[in-house]
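Troubleshooting entry. The earlier prediction with NAP gave an output that would not parse, so I re-checked the input for stray whitespace and re-submitted. Clean input:
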Amino acid sequence: MTDNRPILVIASTGNVGRQIVTQLREAGYAVRAVTRNPRTADFPSDVEVTGGDLSAPSTIAACLDGVDAVFLLWPLHTGKRLAAVVDVIARRARRLVFLGTGGVPDLSFAEQEKLVHGRGTESTVIRPSTFAVNTLWWADQIRAGDVVRGAYGALRMSLIHEADIAAVAVRALTEPGHHGVTYALTGPEALTQVEQVRVIGDVLGRPLHWEELTREQARRRLLADETFPDSFVDVLLDGYADMLAGPPLVLTTTIHDITGAPARSLRQWVTDHAADFT
Ligand SMILES: NC(=O)c1ccc[n+]([C@@H]2O[C@H](COP(=O)([O-])OP(=O)(O)OC[C@H]3O[C@@H](n4cnc5c(N)ncnc54)[C@H](OP(=O)(O)O)[C@@H]3O)[C@@H](O)[C@H]2O)c1
């Protein structure tokens, strides 16, 4: 980018957004971070922090003055306002990088993709595999003992480090050559949940093991977990059942291809986040 117009990062306080803010700053770009709670966002002083709420698209419009490129993800449980938000961005910004979601029952990934690529702005869509940070859903169990209980232990996932998703997003926000493309990102390996628990135990130096629950037992456990949103319990377990019954996972080399660095392993992710399990 040749000017110093800020890059707008929506959902800047989340797992991926914070990494994007950090990596953009490190590369010398001006960053404007959007959050619903600017006073508690806790960014370095050179980050311009602004209030915005995706459920009210006019508040996003107010964040776009002088902006060059925008990073957007969709944390809401309905896709109803995605088109309005994308339209607001497309009118004001040159480029949009969107991280797609499988968590919106009323707007499929293909519909999100069509919507973002069809708005007349330079666009990139990122479709990541399962986030490694999801393993923190087991942190309470790991603090309490050496057993992780859950359903579908044989399900293979390719867990992805948020820093790798961010690295791809930063390239798409700042380099030419990513327009009109959808990038499917995975981690470097496909591990069953049983194997994931073993890796976490290895890194933490603990003899952790998996104990299989039925779907109903896992459902009751998650519903009783105050830190886990009730509305997401069936979405998650249905998603796991579908993945187990579906075609085998295909790993991609997209992270390496775009960033020049191999995708980080789960072992690396746990090493980076070991303190979060204690
Ligand atoms: N977990 C996975 O395995 C996985 C896989 C593929 C895709 N995804 C997708 O990744 C996204 C989650 O990314 P993440 O983990 O980085 O986020 P996260 O850590 O869950 O944080 C959510 C972010 O969204 C912001 N946010 C929530 N409601 C908002 C609203 N109404 N208006 C504006 N901002 C709002 C929050 O900001 P404030 O609270 O500061 O406003 C926060 O920055 C979801 O779309 C999910 O479907 C996840």
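This one parsed fine. The longest strand covers residues 122-128.
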